[in-house]
Specification:
heterodimer, A: 198 residues, mainly alpha, Recoverin, domain 1, two-stranded antiparallel ribbon, 4 strands, globular, B: 625 residues, Potassium Channel Kv1.1, Chain A, Four Helix Bundle (Hemerythrin (Met), subunit A), Helix Hairpins, 4-stranded mixed beta sheet, 22 helices
Amino acid sequence: MLDKADDDLEMTMVCHRPEGLDQLQAQTNFSKRELQVLYRGFKNECPSGVVNEDTFKQIYSQFFPHGDASQYAHYLFNAFDTAHSGSIMFEDFVTALSILLRGTVTEKLQWTFNLYDINRDGYINKEEMTDIVRAIYDMMGKYTYPVLKTDTPKQHVDAFFQKMDKNRDGVVTLDEFIMSCQEDENIMRSLQLFENVI
Amino acid sequence: MAAGVATWLPFARAAAVGWLPLAKKSMPKPPVDNSSKSDEILYVNVSGVRFQTWKNTLDRYPDTLLGSSEKEFFFNEETQEYFFDRDPEMFRHILNFYRTGKLHYPRHECIQAFDEELAFYGIVPEIIGDCCMEEYRDRKKENQERLAEDTEATEGADAPLPPDSTQRERLWRAFENPHTSTMALVFYYVTGFFIAVSVIANIVETVPCRPPKGSVKDLPCGEKYQVAFFCMDTACVLIFTFEYLMRLFAAPSRCKFMRSVMSVIDVVAIMPYYIGLVMPENEDVSGAFVTLRVFRVFRIFKFSRHSQGLRILGYTLKSCASELGFLLFSLTMAIIIFATVMFYAEKGTKNSDFTSIPASFWYTIVTMTTLGYGDMVPGTIAGKIFGSICSLSGVLVIALPVPVIVSNFSRIYHQNQRADKMRAQQKVRMARIRMAKKGTANAFLQYKEDRGIGDRDSDSTTMCVKNRSTFEHQHHHLLHCLEKTTLCMTESAFRTSRSTSLSSQQGAHNNSTGCCPRRARRRAAMRLANSTVSVSRGSIQELDTLHSKTTTITPQTRSSLNAQPTDLKLNCGEQDFTAAIISIPTPPANTPDESLPPSPAPIPGILRNTRATACTYDTFKISSL
């Protein structure tokens, strides 16, 4: 009980300020102006300077109202929270965005691999992949057309492993992943689509 | 979606990269974003106070004025800023809404002013934040209630009847509002007197009188003077029956009338008598008959038609029904608990009064209401302890709901006071309106005189420009045009009726030639005056009906103007227009009336004499003629 009170106090008092604008500009691929716009939006939403997982889940549930986005939001949060501190600060936020929007293909695929690799052991196994895929399908919700069957996620995972796992050892390493994605035309093309988001 | 979420959208889109390796098909093309990438600062000038904000901030809510392209209408090219001629204080709150996503209601502002601002900027009041929503709703409801009362007060009881009302309607009106006619007032007092007589008779007939000769026992007066009391009772019941039947006949909706409380009371008051008449002189039944006589005391409730205070009390009790219900329920619970405890505590003692739990109810009630008759007292120590707890808790339980009832009563009482005050002030207001009307009529006459001079001598038209605004000039010109338009069609009719109007100054009868039926006009004008007083919605329609009813015979030449006493002619001719000029009351902002165009400017000249009326809307509405 005392801990919780302390936690609450900490939450209200914590106010994180990011490093200087110049440093961030050096670390990321954004211009000063873009960083300013990003920070304004971020600060408006989170005056304390940090985003915690609940806020994240709330945001995602508003974007995907038909289904349950909480599990995917959890995985995504972990992907952003590189320091595993339990909260995302502006630097993490901007670093990830820089990779996703302005990064090289390799960097983007690396980030994606990181997202799928839930336990951060360098390998994606079938369970991790199933969890991710199931979380994504949960986001879709129940009222889809055609109606999702219960083993659709499993089929999807199997197809994925079919494509990605080159040496058929049951796990996908980073190199296998990057190589397989570079062979796929669709993926390469789609990676360019999101560059104009900001 | 909330603005806050919109800020996160780009980031969510970026994170969609994470789905790409899993996707079976290729992604759709993203939407093309044509807007300028760089964010710019916008300048918004509200009545001289300059606000600056990012364009993004305003774009958060695209369905409001500031967020959509509607604001381009207010863009001033010279100063390169958006200019709004509104209240800067209020704008602060509006702009804060864009910035923080929460709309707050400033407590010191008038609720209607706030609503109007919201309506102007296209913001729906429903998004007021939770912190201010309750306050907003309370004040809005209070305002609406007050306006509803005002409407009721002004266009209600005292408005004169239309001339074509039937006997029945007049009768009903006489019953509901006794002070409208002398007969009704007389009837009102007579019934009041007889109610009092009846109640006093009921009381007196139970008082013991001196016994008649030859008997020792005291007799109640009712039995001694049986015949006298019976006659008095009969007379009262006859009057009440007559009154009830008259009301039933006059009521516009008989079913509704029969279900109303007052009518039920009337019936209950007179029924015992009739049942007594019908009942045979039977020993068995007369016991029940005696019980019925108790209902005669209900006649005292008939006084509530005569007393407003009694009505308020009744209404308060009705509106506090839930609090009273709660009080009753909690008292019952407490009584049962304490009665049980006391019974078991006192069970051991002999000669205890607490013979059973229901018997203990009496003790509990007497103790909880702090009456303490003392006919039942606990003997054991435990009994005394519980008894004291009982009396302490009784005080608490009864004291809790009482303030709620009191505040309800106070609110309703003040509402009534306000309604009475409004009625009293209405006469003053009407007098002021009449003066204002005369003023404008004079202005118009003056204008026409000047034009009359001007027609003959064009040089002196410049003299007409006294101290009238451009607005007045244009307005008078418009009215003049209208006269000219309609004159051609009705001039002949006017000429024939003029002679008759000359002879009958008072114009109490309607002219059969179809010229201005003066009485109808006066009444219609008075009705209009009534409607202009109140800030009501219905008056707009009334204004229209006024115009459709009245004819447009007007005196055209100066000689005709001078020949008649200005009073009469004003009634006949100018009243139309001046009545129309005066004021179209502002409809309450919470029900924005789409048909009203916004007023370009107030009417300084015309409303010079009416300082207090709340009417600032335009006269251009008349052009709907």
